[in-house]
Amino acid sequence: IDGVAEQIRLAKNRMHTPSELENGELASLYAAYEDRLKKENAFDIDDLVVCPVRLLRDSSNTREVVQERYPWVCIDEYQDINFAQYSLIRLLVPQENSNIFAIGDPDQAIYGFRGADNTFIKQFKDDYPCATIYGLTTSYRCSKTILEASGQVVRPREGGNLLEGIEAGVSIDIRECSTEKSEAEFVARTIEKFMGGVRFFSFDSQITDGSEESEAISFSDFAVLFRLSRMVPDIIKAMNDHGIPYQLVGEEPFFKQEPVKTVVDVLRLIMMPSHSVLHQRLKEKHIRGLSESSLLKIKRNKNIHSIEEYFSEIITLFFPDIMVSHQDAIERLFSLSKEYGSDISSFLSLLQLGSPSDTYNPSTEQVALMTIHAAKGLEFFHVFIIGCEDGILPYTLFSKDTSDIEEERRLLYVGMTRAKQTLFLSHAKKRNLFGNSFHLPISPFLKNIKEELIKRGRAEKGKKKKQDKQLSLFS
Questions:
Q1: C-alpha span between 443 and 394 (Å, rounded)
Q2: Distance, CA of 124 to CA of 319 (rounded, Å)
Q3: Would you give the DSSP letter of residue 226?
Q4: What is the rounded distance in angstroms from the CA atom of residue 63 to the CA atom of residue 56?
């Protein structure tokens, strides 16, 4: 189902109707989906762009009214727009001298798999020849070393970055590990060293002596980035083994995973009791005690004033066990809902439209574990990018013919430029993934980094504690 939904979404982003698809089976499913939307008097997320494009394209009167109403247009992340979004922009501001302000970086175009096309930002000057282009020359985040290295990755033929850093910075640490477990151990030990040791055992095992030259202030200064979520378990184990707190930002937000997803659906139904699809979905789950009267009773409860109180009532009545079985997820839901108080509409909009990075909390004392895609737009003092192997970066393990190598190159660039001070790029000689054992060479992208910018090393195995020599009482 998810695969079909993704194909329909991509078709809509390309402004294709069911009759325009070559795949007959997909076209039939797409048409049935559109009919169901009409029956429910509903739009999906992609329709919010596709339908206005069709309306403005087919009605000159409507187009003129809308253009007059919005004489100024500002667009962020222009490199990530798709064809439907580009069509909307051109309908809103079609003239060469239109009042349009766009921000974008072609080197950070990493959403081609969602239908984004970075050719639109490259032809911006052709679309708007009267526009003035302001190129940024200085990065106030990354060091010169990180900018040089990331520039050599994303533009190997040009051999460098167009941006200047505000300081020289330290060398890029490229670390060879024997396995994914030793890689995870290297990450955890290094964080522990930076923090000056988070356990008494750290001093005893010589992981740290508490006097590191560049100690970190907070665990939130660190991020561990990865290409695939399947690489997370070993990192999590290492974090737990070393007593390092962390927050995981996955490919799918926690509020779209069970049981939180069902709890949120109940709140949606309370607010939208006529939502037939939602009603049917919850009915099929056979939730004990859930009925129209019980939901109406919650809605009319005058003692409930906030979203958090709604969730507390829903969980108490229908899902009491999850407070124990899924305590962390429920606490995250409560914490997120507190930020919105009683504004249920805005909160539900976030849950519908939000991305995994929206759940990231930079104020918590935790190391961030997230995909490189989710890290876009964020920054950290110290960044680890694990799995820098040919087959993972670029990701070609099962799709050598379909992977966009240049987009994979840009993805690593985005990951590298999240780092403000130190950057670690690690690779494993042997890695277990998807139930298989792989022996992958180092990522070819890393070979483009000049040697003078690199500090190379091998992950050390854990040092065994030396046995204290004690004289025998009877010797």
A1: 7
A2: 52
A3: E
A4: 5
How many domains, the chain?
3
Expressed as residue numbers, the domain containing 92 is: 2-127
Q: How confident is the model at residue 467 (pLDDT cuts 50, 70, 90)?
A: very low
Helix axes 260-271, 344-353, angle to 10 degrees: 130
Query: Which residues, in sequence order, are bridge partners of residue 190?
Result: none
Are residues 122 and 15 part of one domain?
A: yes
Q: Which among 301, 256, 266, 261 has a CA at the least distance from the CA of 287? A: 266
**Would 132 be classed as within a structural domain?**
no
CA 321, 303, 300 angle in degrees (round to 5)?
Answer: 90
Residue-wise pLDDT for 318-329, tens only, equals 999 999 999 989
pLDDT tens digit string along 165-174? 888 889 999 9
**Could you tell me if 229 and 279 lie in one domain?**
no
Q: What is the pTM of this model?
A: 0.84
Same domain, 19 and 105: yes
Measure CA of the first residue to CA of the last residue in the chain; give whole Å.
Answer: 75
Query: In this structure, are 225 and 152 located in the same domain?
Result: yes
What pLDDT digit, counting tens, does each position of 350-408 carry? 898 887 788 888 888 999 999 999 999 999 999 999 999 999 999 998 876 567 999 99
Look up tokens 């990231």; give the residue: 360
- Rounded distance, CA 201 to CA 191, Å? 15
Strand partners, 431: 438
Beta carbons within 10 angstroms of residue 357's beta carbon: 17
The residue written with tokens 């194909």 in the block is 7
Residue 174: closest CA among 1, 408, 427: 427
Residue 271 in tokens: 């607010």
CATH number at residue 87: 3.40.50.300
> Which residues, at least 6 apart from 3, have a Cβ–Cβ distance to it below 8 Å?
none
Query: Do 206 and 172 have their domain in common?
Result: yes
Structure tokens at 69: 């109403």
Closest CA to 384 of 405, 369, 395: 369
Q: Where are the alpha helices (DSSP H) in 258-397?
A: 260-271, 276-283, 292-299, 307-318, 322-325, 327-338, 344-353, 372-375
249 forms beta bridges with 370
Cα–Cα–Cα angle for 381, 382, 384, rounded to 5 degrees: 150
Clarify whether residues 95 and 157 are in a common domain: no
Indicate the DSSP class of residue 294.
H
Same domain flag for 244 and 262: no
